[in-house]
Protein: Bifunctional glutamine synthetase adenylyltransferase/adenylyl-removing enzyme
Amino acid sequence: MNAPGGRAGGKGALVRLGFLDADAAQGLLDELGSAGEPLLALLARTADPDTALRGLCRLVEEAPDATELLTVLADDEGTAMRLLSVLGASPALADHLARHPAHWHELRDPTLGSTRPAAYAVRAGLLAAVGADPEVDLPRATRPDADAVDALRVEYRRVLLRLASRDLAHEVGVDDVAAELADLAAGTLDAALAVARTRVGEAADRCRLAVVAMGKCGGHELNYVSDVDVLFVHEPAAGAEEDPGLLRTATQLASHLIRVCGDHTGEGTIWPVDANLRPEGKAGPLSRTLASHQGYYERWASTWEFQALLKARPVAGDLALGRDFVAMVQPMVWHASERDGFVADTQAMRRRVLEHIPARDADRQLKLGAGGLRDVEFAVQLLQLVHGRTDAGIRAPTTLSAIAALTRGGYVGREDGEALHEAYFFLRQLEHRIQLHRLQRTHVLPDDEESMRRLGRSMGFLKEPARALDAAWQHQRREVRRLHEKLFYRPLLSAVARISEDEIRLSSEAAGDRLAALGYADPAAALRNLEALTSGLTRTATIQKALLPAMLQWFAEGPDPDAGLFGFRRISESLGSTPWYLRTLRDEGQVAERLARLISTARYVTQLLEREPQGVRILAGDLAPAPAEALVEEMLALAGRQEDAEKAVRAVRGIRRRELFRIGAGEVLGLTDVAEVGAGLSRLTDATLEATLATVTTAVCAQRGLAEPPTAMAVVAMGRYGGFELSYGSDADVMFVHRAAPGVDQHTAASFAQAVANELRRLLAAPGGDPALEVDADLRPEGRQGPLVRSLDSYAAYYARWSHVWEAQALLRADAVAGDPALRADFEALVDPLRYPEQGLSQDDVVEVRRIKARVDTERLPKGADPQLHLKLGRGGLADIEWTVQLLQMRHAGEVTGLRTPRTLPALEAAAAAGLLPGEDAELLAHVWRTVSRTRNAVTLARGKPGDHLPRDSRERAAVASILGYPAGSSDQLVNDYLRATRRSREVVDRIFWDS
Structure:
């Protein structure tokens, strides 16, 4: 054998030609005899030479004209190449040839390499296969039903065989292949409808039924194997009246069409027809009239439904009716970007797609995964929907045509347009090759070496095909991910900044349209902010131009993009010339993304950051709350370097501001649990009071000419502060206690302590650039009427004589947190018998606690507040849960030591462990307490100021929902979940607290 790979070279030559099993290949070649030698060079060019050779030998066995077949293959290289290419790439089509060996003659057509068949001719052949006349208005199948259904499948495969041979042997463009597949699908739908008409009978003549293709079939870009998405539209035939039976007839026709295409028979199946994109999906009628469709789309349709209609095209049945449907919906499609929540809805749709990818397939999902086909299609469709409203030239339904139109129209840069076209072309071709193998609907790149080798060879990678294919796929995947981010956001900068000529230039109007579609409420202001950030040729402007595409995307994903962009401008103006700032954002992606998320979501955190832009550094590290001991040390060290008490306390407050930012950022980003937030805020307040108390004590001593303070002082945390449950807007509820030094006059000691307490409260509450800390001492004995500071002995005397049950309840959360350690321990020892009485509460005391709670519920709820949505005092809210826990503590803490805690959650656990509360009730109350506490924090973070009511403003409520982890557009779900949780909580409170 003298040809390459002939017998002279033996098995080694076969391996060099691409055969994996040289022994088996040699045996098959021997069976073919001399006819096999001329085919070796052609076999070496196929996707899988071994499979191609096996398929050929099988065809030779089945074909009655095997001699003619081998002769033609030896003499006609074009036919041989087409046949062997199909056999090597698609065992499924090899099976079809084995069942219908005469179809190999289809590949002798010399026009296959240059001519795409006309759509009308394909349709006519499919209709003829079922015995229908393609020239009449309502073709009907005349062959017996089972024969017609089988014949349709055979004819479909015959046409598919011709197409696959053109695709594989003649390198037809992927867009031509996809368009031909769509034409084949349209003809198949018409033939299936002809069978359906025969099944339905005479009633079919009274019904006009249009089949409107959606998705890839509608866009003339179908895959080899894909669901064919359709909508059905019906009207009465000319001269017929609309009656209740018309819908039934249309439904029967549509149902039979679906079954004809999707049923399995002896000749296999074709593909599923999917009508679930219709109005109301599976729950809606299978077909509707034009008027019914119009009413639905005008009143009820979601944004994604208009995106789906972008590719709508009449393909079968009554084409005039289908064109009327498309003409009716097109104006709605091209105004969809004006709808509220357009971007949020579109992002939610893309997110749902990603969420449904099985984890095992995520990294090799060609269609739905990150960097896959859907990323290209979503980006292109978003650009079309935003700008197609005013530019009809970019409305092409086919993705590759749309990319070209967007590039010509200046909405995509030339280089980006070329890169996107190349990436999409590659991904679609790879998708075709994967599906062609077994004619199965799959979009997952295989991970085994043999399959990757076959696919690589089918894509033209003949040297190390598996490795070369994987490298090309990874490269195009990265390109798509990069372009997906860049396409929609970077062009905005061209409207306001000096950008090189190869970039696109959006007009101000087009840029405003795009910003509005992204969710920016004030596009004009956003453009001004962009201009301020990117104008000029400085290094800062250059880096901003590189950062902003990603930043704009992250802002748009937040509930308030305008606030995000404006906040970024403010921070950048403060820090733009600082070397580390832009370098950090550019080089540490996590910092930039965290920053964008924070300033587009949480006004409270943004305000803190604007006062201290250096806080951006914190985002690169751990956002867990810092321990109190380290904070006290830092605060005292910084305060000690100041000239006077006012400056010292300002320094302390500056550290507090920084730590408030750290805690708030951690909660917004979902990194810090609500219990950790409460404890972190409480410890931060401990440190602030400890450092301020020491600073002020020293200052008052200096004012009075004293070497040592005449009295020891301590600060006792009360309320939610004492319970380690502070929120961002909480005052610090405290009591002050002092104990005179030996030999010091009581009046002198009290005067000194009073001065220290007053000065501490004044300095921490003073106006300034840092958040004030209101130190509230109203829970002290006798309230505002009593002395601000008492001695320990005075507290002992008061509680021995005058203590009421409500004061004992308040003392449940007393926690001496700052000041003299011995005095703190003595104070807690003093109040323990009061708050944890050995005998528990009398029945009269229980009644009094309930009476006070009822009064609080009646009098403290703000006027006009919704009692179901008030976070603190509402039904089932914080007050209900905490009063329930505190009543259990006062009744049983004398016996159950686990209840002797100022914290709500540990007290609930102890009550359940002691059998005082059913375990499921304790778990429910703990869950709701956490939920309401998180919501309360989120309200403050979102609004920038404290609030005890779910916001009524839609944007603020969306921000709260975002902080709580709800996806965009889910603020109504937040309210529903909140009401459900607090309703269940209230049921437990009624049983346990009110004993009802």
